[in-house]
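does this look right to u?? protoporphyrin IX containing FE version
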Amino acid sequence: MIFKPFARKLALIAHLTFSVGWIGAVVAFLVLAVLSNTSDNEQLVRACYVAMNVVVRYAIVPVAFVSLASGLVSALGTTWGLFRHYWVIVKLVLTLIAIAVLLVQLAPIDALAAVAADASAPLSSMKEAQRPLIHAIGGLVVLLVVQILGVYKPKGLTRYGWRKENESKANVPAAPTTVR
Ligand code: HEM
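got this back:
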């Protein structure tokens, strides 16, 4: 099913809102991660880890899933399709990898926030406290690549894409031949 122009615009608005929103939420997380690694103020550092846990659970994770879902809708509801163009497949794979890494990082971030929230636990007892920073930088790079692919849409049809293209050409009625 291919969207009518109005529905396509709505789907694209949702896709852009949540996808770029995902990037914005990661930037907020990155700011907290940089502060937590550079500040000498212990209370601020503790607050940053607690806030990172909130941002990742209640902003980044939900927005990431809606971005994925809206991307799938935009692909399946347009002639771009899901498996016809390499750029769409690469976007899908990178997005799935980003979401998988995100989900794996939830438990370590939760553990860091638990130590930070416990005033009796020294900050030095935190394991791999730089982990959120490294993942935020990596995640941001991947999301920017996905965004650039979406804007440029580099040419390149998959084998399946060529087949579908030929099928749709074959279904176009031939122009009437003039009989003299
Ligand atoms: C981090 C995740 C993503 C970001 C930042 C992102 C960003 C974008 C951007 C900026 C556009 C350009 C819109 C335009 O110029 O018309 C776009 C379009 C598009 N994206 Fe994504 N995207 C993401 C994930 C996905 C996923 C997972 C898929 C599906 C596999 C997908 C499929 C599409 C399709 C098909 C379009 C074209 C829609 C149309 O022309 O109506 N995107 N995306």
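Residues 84 and 158 are 5 Å apart (CA to CA). idk if thats expected tbh
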